[in-house]
């Protein structure tokens, strides 16, 4: 787990881009299997919206994690 955390911290943009691309692919795959009457262009728009929402959630989680780590580091230095 620590190796994964260090890789993600070194390659932040790559990991965010990978999450975004994976979310677009997963959403397109899910929408193509569903028998919905949506045009392919609308499916692509929906896939992008889902991917952007997931990316924002990941970025928010990363910001919260960074804040937590910074606070924990400050507490260790003062103790």
Automatic annotation (TrEMBL):
Q: Which segments constitute the HIG1 domain? A: 1-77
Q: Which GO terms describe its biological process?
A: mitochondrial respiratory chain complex IV assembly
Q: Which InterPro entries does UniProt cross-reference here? A: Hypoxia_induced_domain, Rcf2
Q: Any keyword Endoplasmic reticulum? A: no
- Where is it mainly found? mitochondrion
A single Pfam family, by name?
HIG_1_N
Instruction: From the record, give the transmembrane residue ranges.
Output: 12-30, 51-68
Q: Which UniProt keywords apply?
A: Membrane, Transmembrane, Transmembrane helix
An example Gene Ontology CC term for this record: mitochondrion
Classify the source by domain of life: Eukaryota
Q: Where does it localize?
A: Mitochondrion
Gene3D superfamilies from the UniProt entry: 6.10.140.1320
Under the heading PANTHER family, the entry gives: RESPIRATORY SUPERCOMPLEX FACTOR 2, MITOCHONDRIAL
Report the protein name in the record. HIG1 domain-containing protein
Q: Which organism is it from?
A: Vitis rotundifolia (Muscadine grape)
């Amino acid at each position: 787990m620590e190796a994964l955390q260090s890789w993600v911290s070194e390659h932040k943009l790559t990991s965010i881009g990978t999450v975004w691309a994976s979310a677009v692919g997963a959403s397109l795959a899910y929408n193509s299997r569903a028998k919905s009457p949506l045009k392919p262009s609308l499916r692509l728009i929906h896939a992008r919206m889902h991917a952007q929402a997931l990316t924002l959630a990941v970025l928010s989680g990363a910001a919260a994690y960074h804040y937590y780590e910074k606070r924990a580091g400050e507490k260790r230095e003062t103790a």
